[in-house]
Every structure is written in structure tokens, then in C-alpha cells.
Amino acid sequence: MWVKPEEVLLANAFWVTERANPYFTLQRRKGRGGGLTGLLVGTLDTVLDSRVLPYRILHQTPGSEVSFLVAASSNKKDITKHWEWLECNLMNTLMAFDSEMEATEFVRCKIESLLANISNQRPREDEDTVEFRGAMKKFHKLFNMPPEEKLVNYYSCSLWKHKMPRQGWIYLSVNHLCFYSFLMGKEAKIIQRWTDVTKLERGNNLLFPDSIHVCTRHEEFYFSLFVNSEDTYRLMEQLANLAMKQLISEQGFEEDKSLPLHKYHKPRKISSLKRDLDARARSEAYRSAFHLPITEKLDGDVECTLWTPYNKSHVWGRLYLSPGYICFASRVLGLVTVVIPMREINSVEKADNPHNALNKPIIVTTLSKMTFLFAELADRDLILEKISDFLSKQPMHRQHSVSESSTDGTFGTTGSSDEPQFQSALIKLFHRRGSDEVSAKEAVKEHMWHLHFSEFGRGICTYRTHNTQDLILKGVPENLRGEIWLTYSGAINEMASNPGYYASLVEKTKGKENFTTDEIERDLHRSLPEHPAFQCELGIGALRRVLTAYAWRNPNIGYCQAMNIVTSVLLLYASEEEAFWLLTAVCERLLPDYYNTKVVGALVDQGVFEELMNEYLPNLYSKLGHLGLLSMISLSWFLTLFLSVIPFDSAVNILDCFFYDGAKISLTILDNNSGRLLKTSDDGEAMTILSSYLEKITNRDSTLPRMPHTAAPPVRNEEKDSSIDITDLIYDAYSKFSTISPQQIDKLRMKHRLRVVQNLEDSMKRNVLRSVSGDTYIKDEELDDLFTVFKEEYLTSYYWRTHQPPTDLLDKYDPAKPYYEVYKIDFDQFKTLFLALSPWACGLYGGILALRAFRLLDRDGDNMINFRDFSWLLGVICKAELPERMKLFYRLHIPPALLDTDKDELDSPKSESTDDAFEASEFFHDEHDQSTDEIPVDKPTLSGDDLSSLSNKTADSSNDNSKSEETPKLDVASQLKKESLVKLEQETPEEPEVADKNRESVTTPNTASSGKGAISDQESREVEANIPPKKSLPKKSYRHKPAERPLLNRLDSKLQYRNVPNMNQFQFIQLCKSLYDMCMDHPNEQQLYHSIAMLATLLLQIGDVGKQFYLKSSQSECLSLGEAKLGTAADELATSLPTEVTMSADDGSEPGSAQSSPTATPSSGNSQSLSRASSSSSSSASRKLLDTEWAVTFEQFLASFLTEIPLVNHLERKTMLSENIEKFRNRRLYSRSSSLLDGM
Predict the structure, then answer these.
(1) Please, how many CA atoms are within 13 Å of residue 2, restricted to the half-sphere of its CB?
(2) In contact, 319 and 346? CB cutoff 8 Å
(3) DSSP H helical segments within 90-195, as ranges?
């Protein structure tokens, strides 16, 4: 491409000239060649990340030493085109110039005009965007990442390995941390998922100065020598925490396409994804600081001043603007804060006044007649334009503040009697303590708050100052508590933005019952039972409606114990709808992830609490940590917000502080008891000390009678006099630990979330492995590795949004579900794992076999497979004894795994032989026209004893090469028919109706509708789905002890294989095709093909004999019909097997011998065997005569299979999964080394 002419000082450094003329030179980068020079240049380009294009054109006049770069390209074709254009269009003109300076000026102007024309023809693009695209392309190429994996940013750094640094580049994508280094021909690669990171911290010591330490479960890495280590660490921390949240919620990352484009900001030289993450971090901090809804996104901020009328001064700070709010925070922390919802704004205008010295002021007037004056706005017109745009997008309805809302005791969407009426604050309906002293104190508090309202404003639009915090610490009057909680928690914003939402939820949840509502019902009467409001239906009904409505709103959380206690207190001081929105604020914003199924948020805060305790109370931390008491006390305190451990009338004061800026009382409680706790010797004594202390906390200003907890220890008389007032305790906490800010808590939460989530994942893994260990042959480390790769494949669907998450959230979070049901994969993911790990998926038909295995395991018809079924399948394939493996292989070729309507030619790979593919296509087409969906009725078949003895005879005869080619098979068929006839004449055959009843099973709605065949509910895990039995067969070799095979066959048929359905001829042909496919590219391929042919011939004869006895025909008729049908089935099977299989079967000789040459002609006596000599017309006609009455049993298949020693040796071998799992996990590390230097 053409580039703006730039001066080049060293024209020949690292470059080789390929073409030249008096005015231009075409050069190639030395790094593109081989040898030591190319190696050095390639290393230098990689370390410096210079991204120099390999080809360029320079302009240089004959008498000048200065060169100008005019074109550069990544390939020789484009640069050659530019070179030819220069020679054709400029050379003649340049020769006419007398001055070299004029020639150079002409070239520069010409190139710049070309660039201007190109830029006018296409959208203008930032150079940094083009540069980042190159880095992203390199990232995908180096690490074999799919296009869905988005690169966020990349940094130059060093990886310390064996105390030696390797300079390279670290690539940070949404889901992976990658590092690449190329030094002197040696490359180093690291690919780590963010979900595997267990620790992330910064270090600064002599060995690793200014480094970042990354730990996973098995490795640790040190990165250092960053240009900006703080920015790199912040991004890594953000991506790691984003991955932890994905593990909790199982939701993938979605880029925000609605990022604001600021006209007053210069374009930032970073990727759009990096800007997205930066905007997310800033928006999250913005919402946390002002308690705004989780959907609010920060649009921008600017410095300005705010006029504070209460002290008549201008306060410097920052104005924050978002679609729903205007917020202001002073430079001095906590001096003044303002939150103005757009819905409350009446007007916004300029406040220019010639008598006013303010610079660019604006006035914001609210519906409640509050006025806010902002000045010193750098770009006032743009801010006014933004505010006007946001106001125009506000909904038409206007919501009044809480102070103006009705307080008549009931709430509803309208005054209609048809609308639901909700309960008002329960505290108004119950008696107070009736003391004049207490009433006076309450009146004084109310008076102080009203004075505060008159000076600073009331409702959401107020000046929040230190005076507000002082009133909060002294305690909120009971009449105002609900309003104060709503205002300072931000719940009022969500309630005002969603009118009628709670009423609609209550209406939707009427009559709904599931496991969540059952849990709610069990806990209703345990919620604050000491309070009279919850000893009657009035409070119980309101509590039920609020909890059920929230469970319906947020099924990811649903209901968690401790929510009932918090909600019951909220209902005392707020109306039913207000309590609902307060609960929403607590669960989704103020205490994130506290009340999900794993209580992740509480565990994270427990880690934060322990770290703060180690910092402020190190001696006590060591003591309680040794006793193991910290985890016991912190969870019960945090989950219920101290409501379960402190008397209710005192705990509400802690809620006052919590809704304002968070409570800091935990450290104070331990500090006040540190002397006694340090002297304890066991955890029981320490718990008694803390419980007694908490129960002694009182509230002298409470209007309610004291209500001790029902499970609280009795307080002795001498301890009653030493009670602690809750107000004094709160003042003590804010004075001792005032340096702990909410921002510091948020940073510590990000740090500890990694450890907590990973510990939970490890615990979940142990539970899953424990639950499936008895159902699979895979054990110990292999089972652990298999679960890891299974889970990674499951999470991949959320990474790159290749599959949608489960829609039934109530079923997903059902606590009654077994652990192995937590992670499920669909067919695409199952197929990926099956092809990568299963030794049976080695041929061309591996995908078809994966589909049949998926059908077999998907018993409930939800198109999902859990880990228990998957581990059982691979366990049988890789570890089980041969009969169990063959049972599974047999089951993969009968319903529900193989359907009669299947057409393998539509999905399977094409055969190497064109004739095979054509004949197979014709066969399946004809078969589909005639086939039915019903399995043939079981026919009277040979018993296991007879078949075993016959199999041994067949094995002896087949291995005797001295006999003629015709004798073995004819003798076997004849003897089989005669012995079977004698046996069946001595026994009374089972009636077809009875056999049909024994074979059929009860169908579930899913399987019946899906056409997968009937599956029994009772026996589906042991028979239909082949779940391994608890007692496996003795480990015996089938190659050295043929005398024991009849006994094993008889045992298998009676205990395990009795109810396995029969196999018809169509299914048998598919089985032979799969068996042949599994033997491809094997060192003993010819010998295995011969064994398959022998096995197929014998089973075709056995099935023909069994069919003849079922039809009760004469012996002569059976022989003639059997020969015809056997030939037909053999022809059908031959269409799917290679020529060498049929030839080796025809001559009966061992592969590689002279008799098995391709030119050998089958004998006339072997016309029933597999043959490819039939013509196309005869083959087509024979397909139409496919025997629908033919069938064999699994016992017959297994006994015949055991006679073929090569097949037994091949399929009896056990497989170690570890190697395949390791290759699959590290598949992205194996890149094409020959192309690594491309694009660098």
C-alpha cells in the first residue's frame, strides 16, 4: 500500500535490494530469509514488536543520500504492482526534471495525492486500529484461537523461567492469558485460561522487580519489565474477576456495542474491547459510589463547582453524567454528594448573569423545587446537549418521591378494587413500649431530621454531607426508617423506574409451586418468630409474597436461607413493595453474590474480613485462625446482617449504617473482646464469649420491647448491668476504622474472589468425582483429568456463545439434582470430545458412531449428556472387560442408538471406492423405502451352551489351513442347522406374544416422541443404557483360556445380557461397517479384515437358521431359502467392505499368503460368502430382497466374536486416557512452526 513519504536514514540496514532504477529501489527485509542474519533480524522484530512489513519501495535521487519510503506491503505481489505503476507513470516525467529537489517534491506530492484519493473512497480509519488488527491476526495465528476469541490488549514483558528472563509479548484476551517469545530460533508459548487462575498479585523484590505473579493449580509464572505494570495488572485483574463471575453465573462475555462516542475526547489508541472494559470498570465504580441501578452506564465526567446554599460556598468536584442521572462528588471525600435522577428534573438552563462572576454556570431545577447550581464547566454546550438528549428519552410518567407518596397503609398500582392491595409497614400496626421518656427521645430525633430536611433537602435530590452521616449514626426514627433506607440504598430509583412491576410479579406467582416455594414455606415461621408481626398471617402473607416474587424475578438466586430474616425486618419498616425493592438492592447491588446457591459473596467478604483483621488486629487474627473460628462467625454475621446474633431492636441501627455506606462493626466487636479471646483455649469458649457480648447489646432509644433471640444463651444478672449501647458501639467502629472505605472493600473483593471461586470449583469437582466413581471404570487421576476437559468443553459454549445456556433455570438450580447433573454438554461438544478421546473414533465413521453413542446416552431426550454418562461410556470403551465392551458396541447398532430410518450416506465420509459409495447409496435408498420402524419380534434362538460349543468347533475348523476351502463353511452351516433343529425340537418355543412382552419396555414421553425406541425406567441404567454393574466380571484373558469361554458366555447371557434386544439384518450390516472402520490403518489390517469376514459369515448363517425355525418350515425349504437369503445379505455387506476383505474371506487363507492374492478366484462352494463379483443389477435386485425376518442375539454375536482371536486381541487392549486428554487440552500449543514468522 502507498504510505505518506517518510525520510529513511539507513536505507540498507536489515534490507536487501531486489530491484532498482535511478529514482526507486524495491527492497526485502532480511528476516524473511534464512541463515544467521535472518534469525537475528526475526528475533529483533519479535522482541521489539516492530511489525515492519517485509517489502518496501524507497525513492532516492542519484545525487542524494536521503531516501523516502513511498510504499510497503506484506506480500511480493502487491509491491510488484506498485513498482510497475511507478515505472509506467513516473519515470518519464522524473527524467525531465533538471533539479533533483524538484523531482523529489513531485514524487512526494504524487504519492500524497494517491493517498488522498484512496482515503476519500473508503471510510477513514485510525492507524492504531489497523495496527491492532495486525496484532489480533498474529494472536489468532500463534495460538490457534478461533475468531470468536477477542484480544483485549498486548504488552511487552519478560517471562522468568529458571531464573532467566525471556523477552516476549503477553496477549490478554477475554478468556485466555497467552505469552509468546521467539529468541534465536527457539520459541516459548504459554496459554492459560482465566478460569484456571487461582492467584494474581503484584510483586517488587530484588529477584522479580515490578513483577506480576500468576498462579494456576499446577504452575506459576512471573512476568516483569513492563512499560506500564499498573495498567497491565489492572486489566489482568479485571479479566480474571470477569472469568470468576462467568464461573458463578455461567454467562459468556458480550461486548457492549453502545459505548458513548465523546466528541470532547481525543481518540484513544486502544482497542474497542479495551475501551469497553475500561468503561465497564468506571461504570461499576460510578454505580457503587452513588448506589445506582446496575443497568446505569457512565457517559462521561467533567470537573466543575457546586454551589452549596447551606454554607454559601462553591465546592470543587466532578460532575458525572449518565442516561438516567446527574451526580456530583466533591474532591474532599464525603464533603458533599448529590444524586439527581433525570425523572426528577424539571428544567436545565444556562445561568449567565452580567452581575455574576461565575464561569459557564448551569442551573438544574427539580420537581421538588430544589435548585442546583454548577459552574466552571469546560464544555457547557455539549453537557447541555447531552442532558437534553437524556431528558427526551425519559418515560412520560412521573413518579413522586417517597415523602410525597401516600402512607395510608395499603399500596397498589391504582385505586381500583380489582388491583392487588399490599401490606403497609408492619411497625405501625403493633404497640410501642409506651414510655414517655422513649417517646420524647423519638420526637427529638424526628425533629432533628426535619430540620435537616429543611436545610439540605428531602428525598433523593438532597445535599448529602457529614451532617447526614452523623444523624445516621445516632439512629433513624422509626417513622422515617423506611424512607431513609429507600433513599440512601438507591432502591427508590428502581421502584420509581418500574411502576407496577411488583404487582405483576405477585399476580404471576399466584398458585405457582416448585422446590423454591417449598423452601420458602418451610422458613416462613422461622423468620423473626419473637416479633408479634410474624406470629399471624398478616406478616407471614406479606413475607411469602415478597420472597416468592423475588425468586421469580431472579431465578439465578431464587431463595436462600437468611433472605427470610432480612426481608422480615424490611417489612416492619417499609411497605410490601418497598421491601421488595430493598431486597432487590441488597441481593443484586449491595451484597453481590451473597444469596446464590454457593454464597460466593459471603465467602469473599469472609476473606476480606480476615485480611483486614490481619492488618488491624494481627494477634487476634492469629489466635482465632488457630482456633478455626473466623469462618464460623463471619458467615452467620454477614448473611443475616447481624439480625440473627444481635437483638432485633439494636440490629436495625446497623441496617441504618449499612444502607448508607456499609457497616464497619465486625472489627469493633472483636477488638472490644480481644483481651478475653486471647486467653481462650478452645473454640467453644470463644463462641460463648462472643455470643454473650452480642446478646448484651441494647438500644436505649428503641420504642419496641426487648426481644432476645430464642436460641440466645441466658444472660446472668451481673452481666445485665454491663450492657453495651448500639449507638456507642457504632461510634466506636467509625472512629477506630474510619480509614476503611467502600472503594478499598471493592478492591479486596476482587482479590479474594479468585481464591473463593476456585475453592468452590475444586469442591464441586470432588463432589462430582465422588458421585460418579462407582459408575465408571475410569479412576483416580484419569477421572480427574476427564472431568477437567469435560468442564472446559462445557464452558467453551459460554466463552464463544456457540451454544445457548439451559433455559429451565428452576431445574438448573434445583438442589435435589445430583452433582454430576451440574455440567451437561450437547451433541456438538460430545462429538468433539468423543472424536478426541475415544479409541473407537479412529476411522472415517467416527462422527456417526458419536451420534449413535449420544442417542444411547440421551435417555431423557433433552439432547444433553451429563458427566456420569460420559465417563461411563469412555470407561467401558477404554477400561471394561471385553464382553462389556462388545455389549456397548452391539447396543450402538440397535435402537435407540441406530434407527431404521438412518441414512449413513448423508452424514458419513465418502468411501475411497466410487463403486462402494454408489452401491451403498442405492442400498440405503431401497432399504429406507421398505423398512419399518418396528424391531422384529424375538425368534427362538440357540442357547448360549449350544452356541458356545458350536463356536469352538468353528474356531477349530477355521484355523485348520490344511482342509479345503469349501468344507469348513458348508460343514458349519449344515451342522448348525441340524444341531439347532434337534435342540429346538426338544424344547417348547416361547410364543411370539410372550417374547414381545419380555422384550418391550415402558416408554417415556420423550423417548416415545423422539422415535428412539422403548426404554424402561427401572432397567434403563443397567440394561438399556448399559450402566456398568456394581460387580464386574473377573479379569480373564480370552486369548489363552478358550476352555473357559462357554462358562463365561453362559454367565453373561443369564445375568447381564438376557434383555438385550435382537439385531436385524440392516443393523448387522451397519455393525460390520463400524467394525471395519475401527480397524483401518492398523498394522494387522489384513488379518483383522479376514476376521471380520469370518465373523460376518458365521453370524449370517446363524441368523438364517434361527429365522427358519421361527417360520417352522421344513428342513429342505429352510436350506434352499437360507442359501438365497444368505447370499443376499452377503452381497449387501460386501458393498460396504473393501475388496481385500471379501477376497480374504473367500479363499479362507491368512493375509499375506499366496492364496490371498488379489487375483484369486472364489470357489463355487463358497458362493454364500462375501463377494464383490456380482454385477450392479443383481446387487440392486438383491437389496430389495433384504431379509426382514433375519435376526441374531447378542449372545450369538459375543460367542462368535470370541472365536476371532485377532479381533479379540485388537479390541481387548485397554487404553490410557491421560495422553489423549493432554493432547486435547494443549492442542492450541501445537501450531505450524513453518509459518510462525509470517505476519511478524
Answers:
(1) 17
(2) no
(3) 91-95, 100-121, 127-143
